[in-house]
Each structure stands twice: as C-alpha cells, then as structure tokens.
Amino acid sequence: MSFGAKGKTTIFSLPRPDYEEIKRHLEELGADMVISDIDLETSSNDLEKKIIEKFGSLPILGLNCVGGSNALGLAKLLQNNGLLLTYGAMAKRPITLPASLLIFKNITFKGFWLSSLDKAADEPNARSQRIVSEISKWIKMGTFKLDFTTHPMDSWQHAIDTAIKSSFTKSKQILLLSPERD
C-alpha cells in the first residue's frame, strides 16, 4: 500500500520482526518514507504531521492493494478531494468507509483491474509486453534493482527451503533451467 505526495514514494509495511531491516531495504530501493501498519492504524494525527513535515502536504492519491482497515487508515491521510485507488485485496477484508470521508473530505474511492483493460484492448497482450520491455530496460541500465539468488536445477530443494524458511524474504529464489551463459 502506498501513496505519492509531490512525486514521492511512501510505503506502508506490515508489522514483522525484521521491520527495521525491511524499512532500510525499502529506503535503499528509493522509498522516501516507510510507515508501519501499526502506525497507520494508531496515530493518524501524529502521522499526518510527519507526512506534512516531510513532503509539505498530505497526498492526493493513495494506492491500495491490501484492503481492510489498512485502506481506511490510508484514506484518512489523504487531502480533501483525494482519491484512493484499490487494485488488490490481499487482506481479504472489506473496506468499511465512514461517511465523514465521503462528506467532509470528499474522498473518491475507485477500483482498478488491469486484466480487464487487456481483455478490452485490440491487442490484449500489447500493454503487458510494453511494460515488461520497459522494466527490462530499467533492469539492464541498473535503474531498477532486483534482489534475487539463482540456483541450478539440481539444487531445487535448497531453493525451495530458502524461499519458505520465512514467509517474507527480501531475495527471490530463481531456478535456472539451463546452465548460465556468459
């Protein structure tokens, strides 16, 4: 879940034992501010002040991929006339809206389903192919960094064990189907 304030990136992170390490990692990747889930739900006034201090204003756009109470906390931090765009529901919980956000802050809530755009397009996979192509360029240029570890196919068990040892790992595990080439 994130929102942008004047082109800045803010990321909300779920509570976990290695929160500080993950926070540092996200900041290294370019996040301007990382806010814990707990802070999002408990200290709205203090959090508003921190956000305004950091960015000069509250954001006008919130991007919600979690749902539930997280989305509500995010919506409360938007400027008047802001937009909360939901594109996922990882919490599998409904977003319960207080009337005050609709009446007094005039927050707009919208849903977005990328797959429906591809289905409606003349060339259904063209957009996805362009996105993958652009991201690939960023990776090659070093603009977009990925944290991953490769494993030969005969080490598949080690790769799987590494991937599942924690439900949250920074590094993705990739099995190589053929030997690496220079």
Automatic annotation (TrEMBL):
Protein's name in the database:
Putative mitochondrial enoyl protein
User: Which GO MF terms does the UniProt record name?
Assistant: oxidoreductase activity
Q: Which InterPro entries did the record assign?
A: ADH-like_C, Mito_Enoyl-ACP_Reductase, NAD(P)-bd_dom_sf
**Alcohol dehydrogenase-like C-terminal domain: from which residue to which, for each copy?**
24-120
Is the keyword Hydrolase in the record? Answer: no
The GO cellular component terms are: mitochondrion
Gene Ontology process terms (BP): fatty acid metabolic process
The record's section on Pfam families has: ADH_zinc_N
> Which keywords annotate this record?
NADP, Oxidoreductase
In terms of SUPFAM superfamilies, this protein maps to: NAD(P)-binding Rossmann-fold domains
**Record carries keyword Cell inner membrane:** no
Gene3D superfamilies reported for this sequence:
Medium-chain alcohol dehydrogenases, catalytic domain (3.90.180.10), NAD(P)-binding Rossmann-like Domain (3.40.50.720)
